[in-house]
Amino acid sequence: MDQALQTLIDQVRAAHARQAPLRIGGGGTKQGMGSLPLGELLDTRPYHGIVNHEPTELVVTVRAGTPLTELEQVLAQQRQYLPFEPPRFASGGTVGGMVAAGLAGPARASVGGVRDYVLGVRMINGLGQDLRFGGQVMKNVAGYDVSRLMAGSLGQLGVLTEVSLKVLPVPPAEATLRFECSQSDALGRLQAWCGQPLPLNASCWVHDAGADTLYLRLRGASAAVESACRSLGGERMDASAAAADWEACRDQRLPWFAAGAPDTGLDLWRLSVPTAAPALDLPADLMPPLIEWHGALRWVWAPAAHANALREAARAVGGHARRFRPSDAAAAAPEGGLPSALRALHERVRQSFDPAGIFNPGASVGMD
User: Fold this and answer.
1) I want to staple 164 with a disulfide (CB 3.0 to 4.6 A). Which of 61, 178, 197, 285 is the partner?
2) Residues 109-112: contacts with CB under 8 Å, at least 24 apart
3) In the chain, how many domains are there?
4) Is residue 152 one of the residues assigned to a domain?
5) 89 & 145 share domain
6) Are residues 248 and 338 located together in one domain of the fold?
7) Are 40 and 20 in contact (CB under 8 A)?
8) Which residues partner with 179 through β-bridges?
9) Does the pTM of the predicted model rise above 0.85?
10) Is residue 22 scored above 50 in pLDDT?
């Protein structure tokens, strides 16, 4: 057995024997997601590297401590990529952290989320046992799919050590269209377009520099993309400029995300609602939201005093809201992202994997 893996197992077994909490960590790029870092650090980064990559099979198996950028570079050499565009937020993020956080980027509504691409995992449970679930083909993930439970679990079920992922070829064509329109108009257009056979991939509506603007990314066959550009209208953006903007959207580096700097006292809220939901009834003193996922994901900057109003606005249209990035991460309590029934189910599953509750106590799950 690899010495780095054995070290992880030994650390878990020692923590279980002492009933001592462990804080599973990689690059630390997702620590601002509202969870409280508690316990002794268990660093997954020493266990890294690409285990196997089968380009013709569209499958890659990688150790959890591998930098996400390294995996993306390996895939790019074969003109392949992770379609769900995991947000990186900063350099140093790992593949294990990507799966544990369960976050997906702008294309989530069109291509699926992280769990849709997880085929199998290797993990260490709370007893220090080295376990494997799933495999490297879709037929191995039927039934009770433990592998996909790890997506978004924030390390509360176990320590990810290896992950097998489905990847896809880079689409042959891409274009980004720009439309100046109000929030209501943008939501109406997106709802109509989603009902048509268009190569929609991502969207972003934002109020920036005094203008309300909808950006629409198309991906797919060249003929389909060109046909959609002609039928939809709008202003076609320069390809390189558009690519940079989508990268910034993915990693929350757009100017809109800088509006809630730490000294403003504003929290970043993540509102998940049905795609067809109209513009939300938000407090009048808030800046307009940033809207992704064809209307299903809405980001809002708001002070703590508006917490109940945001939750009620999302609940009124059949969605939910949670604080994603507190203005004071050190003082904020974790947000419970699951309804009570799902929370009870999560706790029962967690008890099965980690009876002593040593993994990431205080973390909040249910992000995506």
Assistant:
1) 61
2) 109/202, 109/203, 109/275, 109/292, 109/293, 109/294, 109/296, 109/297, 110/200, 110/201, 110/202, 110/294, 111/83, 111/84, 111/201, 112/83, 112/84
3) 2
4) yes
5) yes
6) no
7) yes
8) 214
9) yes
10) yes
* pLDDT given for residue 330 in this prediction: 47
Quick one: 208 and 138 in the same domain?
no
In a domain, 205, yes or no: yes
Place of tokens 């974790």: 334
> Residue 312: what pLDDT?
96
- Answer whether residue 340 is part of any domain: yes
Residues 164 and 281 in one domain: no
Contacts of 172 (CB under 8 A, 6+ apart): 220, 221, 222
Q: In what order do the strands lie in the sheet with 290-292?
A: 235-236, 173-180, 211-220, 200-208, 290-292, 297-302, 267-272, 320-325
Judged against a pLDDT cut of 70, whether residue 366 lies above it is answered with no
- How does pLDDT run across 218-260, given as a tens digit for each residue? 999 999 999 999 999 999 999 999 999 999 999 999 999 988 7
Tens-place pLDDT, residues 182-224: 999 999 999 999 999 999 999 999 998 789 999 999 999 999 9
What tokens does 261 get? Answer: 């700097």
Q: Do 16 and 163 share a domain, yes or no?
A: yes
The closest of 78, 125, 123 to 99, measured between CA atoms, is 123
Domain that holds residue 299: 173-325
Strands 118-124, 130-134: parallel, antiparallel or unpaired by DSSP?
A: antiparallel
